[in-house]
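Let us begin with a simple case.
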Amino acid sequence: MKRIALLMAFLILFNSCYSYKKLNLGVDDYDVGQNYEVRLGERKMEKVKVVEVTDSTIVVLQNKNRVVIQKSMITESRLRMLSPGKTIIGSVVGVLATLSIFGILFLSGGSSSDGFVTF
């Protein structure tokens, strides 16, 4: 039971919802300091943070390494944006779920002879 309560507490503390806005290649420019998801060729999407932008390349941080990427090699890119609506809804659902679990634990007769709740 203690593990469930700890898991629920972590879910509330680390709740954040991001959504991705698809960018038009060649039209949208990359902003320094922004987080993106990029696909190079047929590889999987990778999360990067843009450090520097030139006409033909972008310098990104990927897993704490600086990588220079040719813009022509990027087949898909999406801007990572915090979604306030999803974050609020996720937080409310997380709090309600945590309160429900704690309520079930406390009301299920999980008390010792001292009157303290045990997990």
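The second case is a distinct protein. As before, the sequence precedes its structure tokens.
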Amino acid sequence: MIRKSLFFVSFTVLALNAAAFANKCTDAAFSMNANPNLRLDPNIYVDSVYTRSSTQKYIYANGKVSEVHETGEKEQILYFYPDADQTSLKNTGTEYILTKCDVQDTLCYVQSIYQDGELFDGTLTIKATPDYISQEIEQPDYHQLTEFILKPDTLISKDESYGRQMGYKVNLKSSTMLYVADPNDDTKCSLYSNGKEYATLSYNPNEKGFSLSMGIGNTPIAEYFFIDASKTSSIRKTVKPVKMVPKARYFDLLGRFKFMK
């Protein structure tokens, strides 16, 4: 539970630098796989995420995520404190403190998580550039590193984890997934694992910004909505939810798609 909680918030949104890359879909897939407070474009915000069983609504203060309101099987509010310390804690529910780390030419935060005021034993270090994200969990008996590398027509996702016993690495696991652009459609891409297509994604522009929808076969499983502040004066718009049908096992707490091995 602790390991999973440390990783929950690391995967949602990094605002995309769309002009630098060729495919809007792989850009948006890169964007949905990082911390929402590591934004390269100050105009782009994640607004909400819809799945079959849950909805996540993002609330901002001073341009950074301050709360995530989740409804579904469990209703809760997650609290975020960027550039803060323990004096900011409410000591109730799930709370995240993000502290800047000093890495040249790289956005970097160390994230700690508190449950009812109690610090979990471990940290998550998040680093990002316009084409690279790393997310590293460190605990006394566990290590996990996830990397996202953005190419002009492909997003590469690498994951490695292992436990520790008596100073030795045990239960080493690694995997690689690819988000590959559709050569005939700038707004489409597909998720591959072990050389097989697992899901399809679609970039959908709208009057407030854009969304990224994901499906398996003809079945929709999630949609992520982004606000472009240059198009609207408010980032707290309500978007009509889409109808989803698969089970919640495909997602983590904040709506990130989880590949099922």
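The chain is about 5% helix and 55% strand. The two ends are 19 Å apart (CA to CA).
Keep these points in mind for the review questions at the end of the chapter.
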